[in-house]
From TrEMBL:
It comes from Mesorhizobium denitrificans. Residues 63-160 form the Thiol:disulfide interchange protein DsbD N-terminal domain. Keywords: Signal. This is Thiol:disulfide interchange protein DsbD N-terminal domain-containing protein. It holds the Pfam family DsbD_N.
Length: 276
């Protein structure tokens, strides 16, 4: 484990020479014994931006720990949503000895001249839920992988280390997590979300409830090798639906699959799942 040097100025009464040397040796030992890991990792910097991992609190009885994958982008750079399209790199986070789940705020659509893809054109906070073994204590090691794009796209791999127990109540980290969670879409419901999907050959139609304007956007992420083209809004008889082409990378449709989606309007957003 690396160590950090902390300089401390202490006012003490006059100490005799022998005792002074023992006192100085003790202080130096204590200073160099301080661990380098904090409850947030150091920044991993690269062309186009930088990334770090932040945690708040300590693992609960189930080993779950809340945190944020903090992605800061330089002006003009972009990064991807969970389904980045045909040529993108979705964010992933791997936790040594545990698991990591990434949650996503509502993205935007982008067109690079060839492909439509979903992502973010400015810095973004991705809430994460880490699960560590109950017997674990001390530092955590994680690896983040994502793509940063401007005129070209650069794959970024970042090895991130932190110790949630070192500063679990850090107020700055708590504000970062609160801000990230506040930007998440609300859970989809029968009052606002996708209520139905119909598939006819390579075409899928998604019925929407709770909004009827053509300025809504739908973002889809398939599982088990399925993907979708950019959904197009269709308003008929005051009802909104979206049409998208289904793309399969498998020889046959699996018996069960899940579609993750985010429905976005000018004033709200909701995320949910659909069976496919």
């Amino acid at each position: 484990m690396s160590r950090r040097l902390i300089i401390v100025i202490v006012a003490v009464p006059e100490i005799r020479k022998g005792r002074r040397m023992r006192f100085v040796s003790l202080c130096i030992g204590l200073l160099f014994a301080a661990p380098a890991f904090a409850s947030s990792s150091t920044w991993h910097e690269t062309e186009g931006g930088r990334v770090r991992l932040v945690t708040v609190g300590e693992p609960d009885a189930n080993g779950q720990l809340n945190g944020v994958l903090d992605i800061q982008l330089d002006p003009g750079w972009k990064t991807y949503w969970r389904e980045p399209g045909d040529a993108g790199v979705p964010p992933t986070l791997e936790l040594n000895g545990g698991t990591a789940q990434i949650l996503y705020p509502a993205p935007e659509w982008h067109h690079d001249g060839t492909y439509d893809w979903a992502g973010y054109a400015s810095s973004v906070l991705l809430p994460v839920v880490l699960t560590v073994p109950p017997e674990h204590s001390g530092a955590l090691q994680a690896t983040a992988f994502l793509g940063l794009c401007k005129t070209i796209c650069i794959p970024l791999k970042a090895d991130l280390a932190l110790d949630p127990e070192s500063d679990p109540d850090n107020p700055s980290d708590s504000l970062t997590l609160t801000g990230a969670q506040a930007l998440l879409p609300e859970p989809a419901s029968a009052a606002f979300g996708v209520t139905n999907i119909q598939v006819n050959g390579e075409q899928a139609t998604f019925s929407i409830t709770g909004y009827s304007g053509a300025d809504a956007e739908l973002f889809l992420a398939g599982s088990d090798g399925f993907a979708f083209s950019r959904p197009k809004p269709v308003v008929q008889n005051g009802k909104l639906s979206f049409s998208a082409k289904v793309t399969s990378y498998l020889k046959a449709k699996p018996k069960s699959a899940t579609i993750f989606y985010t429905l976005k309007t000018p004033t709200r957003a909701a995320s949910g799942t659909l069976p496919f």
